[in-house]
Amino acid sequence: MPAATPGSLESLGSHPAAEPSPDLPPGEAGTSLGREAIRRVVRDPLALVGAFLVVGFVVVAVFAPFLAPFGPNDRVGAVTPTTIPGPSAEHWFGLDSLGRDELSRVIYGARQSLLVGVVSLLLGATVGISVGLLAGAFGGWVDALVMRITDIMLSIPGLLFAIGIAAVLGRSLLSVMIAIAVVNVPIFVRLLRGAMLAQRGSDYVVAVRSLGVRDRDVVLGHILPNSLSPVIVQGTLTLATAIVDAAALAFLGLSGEDPAVPEWGRMLAETQRFLASAPHLAFFPGAAIVLAALGFTLLGESMREALDPKYRR
Amino acid sequence: MSAFEPTVTGSTAAHTSSPVSTATGDEGRRGSVDGSPLLQVRGLSVRFTRRGRAPVVAVDSVSFQVPAGRSVGLVGESGSGKSVTSLAIMGLLPRRGVEVGGSVTFDGDELLGMGEDRRRSLRGAEMAMVFQDPMSSLNPVVPIGVQVTEVLRRHRDMSRAGARDEAVDLLTRVGIPEGQRRLKDYPHQLSGGMRQRALIAIALACNPRLLVADEPTTALDVTIQAQILDLLRGLVAETGTALVLITHDLGVVAGMCDEVHVMYGGRLVESADRLDLFARPQHPYTTGLLASVPRLDTPRGIPLRPIPGSPTLTRAWTTGCAFEPRCTRSQANCLGDAPPMETVAGHGVRCLHPVTDDQRAAAVGQELP
């Protein structure tokens, strides 16, 4: 699969004298697949932009208390509904409708987005991978049943589905996470199951079976590791959609119980009344959502190219 | 491989007392030391069934036997059923959509219908297989070391460290130097020849009594082919492993095998001791195969002499001889019932009009006009 520099390997192989001592070119020796993929990602400028955005997003979220100039709920300036100060030297992103520092709120909002994104991804991926593994490993009626349920879930528009689940579960951060996770489960199921089916008939699987390796070990030790790369890519992309979905749910009023916690989607929703007088209140949270999602998308796409042999040059 | 000289390899005589006939239905003349062959295939047939369509008969009443420590070649072109035969012996055919009939016994135990658990514990330990394409037969995301030690840990209950040491030994034995370092390498870091060596190391890890090699050198270039064949020959001789070598290359068979079975359209058409087969080929397909191989002493400018037609011209055996559409010797009675396997002095031929010694002698003059 990973035909790294086929030229050099071929020439070594065909040279009889070189056969007994196949010293690979210096850069090639000891290159694991993961390192090779990282090398490819690093060479891709779009991937670097994505990685930069992602790292920036995570740093901002983790170190929010140190980076934010003010507390997220400190009223640091006087505002009236018609005079909300825009960006200034003191308040880079201006103030919000309650006189709080908008920059600090956007910074603290990253925490919420990252939390929702990561937890819902882990939840969705764990369930999705487990179910996909069952379907891909057993086939037969297990597979048929799982895939029909998956089809039904995928036929419901994702955001609508998430709204429904979050509404049923009640207004809490956990229900938002569960809602977004549930929407992503069928995507992981289908992806992993498809990748495993493609691997099942491959030569190395027959070869491993010819050695009497147990089915469980064939699936977990050989088929699964070869099927994970699309899942890893999907995980990165899912973080992007999870952040957007979380914002959308918050915009619609489905988010954590505590309205004091800054949340990008809710900030957007609250700003609706002031759109004419304070457009910066819509711009900054919106830009934050876009940049975070863009970062994960760019990184995910370039990882897809790095991990998928079809894109290999 | 143009090595057609039938040199007798050292492994031949060590394990059996006399040349053994393995032709169909010739059970009276078992010749291996302990009286019964290691692998006995009787009337093996494999049908691929498809919903709503006629089943495809890939292998049809194939019978042969492999005495312990001997090398048997299965020769045929693409689609002749040789790979399916090997997969059926190993029990690696998919369970759904495949009907396997007949009997395959290994050391007296019937393999067909044996429980999957028992079969699995035979596979890799008692019988192992080397596949055609070393590029795709190793797991690309698992280091070589793990792939070699896996079989040791599975069948020989070795500890992780013990298996690792054994793996280094194995890699050294198959000619991969610096085994310790190679264990951490991934398949893409090895050349094609090295990968096939690694696969052979894995197959021989537990000293199996039977090794099935399915076109082990087809995907390799010629110099590497020779090295891999030398390696296989040496290891088989050294360990006393019986070998079923599946190939389309008569040159490979000439250098490796004690007995040869030629397959066409899913059936054996000629079975003989190697020396006998190359000296006195009787089936028109075998003679065609031999004539189609260019030889070093063939003058330049002489066109190759391929067998006319292609394997797709095959007729179903139920309506006569499958080779008839491509056969230069076909006559009216070739259509009708399938010709039976006629065995004379250990040399079996499935043909109503086999090439006789006189005709062969007469043809020698015409071969080089």
Describe what this molecule looks like in 3D.
The complex is a heterodimer of chains A (313) and B (369). Chain A has twelve helices and no strands. Chain B has 369 residues and is of the alpha/beta class. Chain B has an eight-stranded mixed beta sheet with strand order 6-7-8-3-9-10-12-11, sandwiched between helices. In chain B, strand 1 and strand 2 form a beta hairpin. At the A-B interface, helix 1, helix 9 and helix 10 of A face helix 3, helix 4, helix 7 and helix 8 of B.
Content of β-strand of chain A: under 5%
Q: List SSEs of chain B in N-to-C order.
A: HEEEHEEHEHHHHEHEHEEHHEEH
Order of helices and strands of chain A: HHHHHHHHHHHH
Poorly predicted ranges of chain A (pLDDT <50, ≥5 residues)? 1-30
The tally of strands of chain A reads: 0
Q: How much is the average pLDDT of chain A?
A: 83
Helix content of chain A: 55-70%
- How many strands appear in the DSSP assignment of chain B? 12
Can I get a quick summary?
The complex is a heterodimer of chains A (313) and B (369). In chain A, 68% of the residues lie in helices and 0% in strands.
